[in-house]
Design goal:
binds zinc ion, TIM Barrel, 11 helices, 291 residues, eight-stranded parallel beta sheet, 8 strands, globular
Length: 291
């Protein structure tokens, strides 16, 4: 057994270094504690933000020890990786990917008690949404290839380091599915329909639900959730993005995980306590926390 109070909520995926959260981090973390959070996983999206996520985690721990704040009951960990949106920055040169992955590897090796996974990485073929890809002049096949190279390199790294992978997949399930047996980890901000979910359930991966599970239009996603045993479910905010229904349009923060937990509980017909307990246990297991 571990030292966590297991009924506390866990936000398995947040980006605490983006402007709106970083600038008022003390308040954001106080809110998180006040709303019953026990663990936050702070997820990097490129080399710089991965370093920043680790720095924030170190800083939080130092301050927590210094001043006996109420934040002592909160644990923060980091993951480090390169988001598919960055694929456009590695259009052809394999060596540039390798240089950056070496930097991530060093970051992990120097901070092994804080860094608990690689990611987020993956495939995001919703190219119109991303200025870098729109302006790149690459044809669609090249855009896809650039992301797949970057993703494949991180799969190699995660297996070398024996860590879990945090996977982002948007509009790319056909290409993503064949990769899913090559690593352990989490499908973050899950967006698979019931047909895809059937295939995902054949793997060992955990499946993380974000604020979009609370959106009225997303019955199709709630149908997928119904199919997935709670032992495989994680919850996340993806802060500062994707605020849940009652806060839509506002910057998201980890405290809002409660609304995600409530909706998951409702869909599953169980208590919020049970969702908190099991999803926290799942995070401890997949990220090997306190091991
Ligand atoms: Zn994210």
């Amino acid at each position: 057994m571990n030292s966590y109070t297991v009924h506390k909520l866990t936000d398995s995926h947040a980006h605490l270094y983006f402007d709106k959260l970083r600038d008022q981090l003390d308040l954001v973390l106080e809110n998180a504690v006040a709303n019953g959070l026990g663990i936050i996983i702070n997820v990097g999206v490129d080399v710089e933000t991965s370093k920043e996520a680790v720095r924030q985690t170190i800083d939080f721990r130092l301050r927590g020890n210094d001043k006996e704040s109420g934040n002592n009951s909160l644990k923060i960990y980091s993951t480090i990786g390169i988001h598919p949106h960055e694929g456009v920055n590695y259009p052809t040169k394999e060596s540039e990917i390798q240089n950056d992955l070496e930097a991530l590897k060093d970051l992990y090796l120097n901070n092994q008690s804080l860094v608990v996974g690689i990611g987020e990485c993956g495939l995001d073929f919703f190219f119109e949404h991303n200025a870098g890809f729109v302006e790149s002049g690459l044809i669609v096949e090249e855009k896809k290839k650039s992301q797949m190279r970057l993703f494949e390199a991180q799969i190699v790294l995660v297996n070398e380091l024996q860590l879990p992978l945090i996977v982002h997949c948007r509009d790319a399930w056909t290409e993503m599915l064949p990769y899913l047996n090559q690593f352990n980890g989490v499908l973050h901000c899950y967006s698979g329909n019931t047909k895809i979910t059937k295939q995902v359930l054949e793997t060992n991966l955990y499946i993380s639900f974000a604020g979009n599970i609370t959106y009225p239009k997303n019955d199709w996603l709630r149908e997928s959730l119904k199919m997935i045993p709670l032992e495989r479910v994680l919850i996340e905010t993806d802060s500062p993005f994707l605020a849940p229904q009652s806060k839509r349009g506002q910057p998201n923060e980890p405290a809002n995980i409660r609304e995600v937990a409530e909706r998951v509980a409702q869909v599953k017909g169980i208590s919020v306590e049970e969702v908190a307990r099991q999803t926290t246990q799942n995070v401890i297991k997949v990220f090997n926390l306190n091991a």
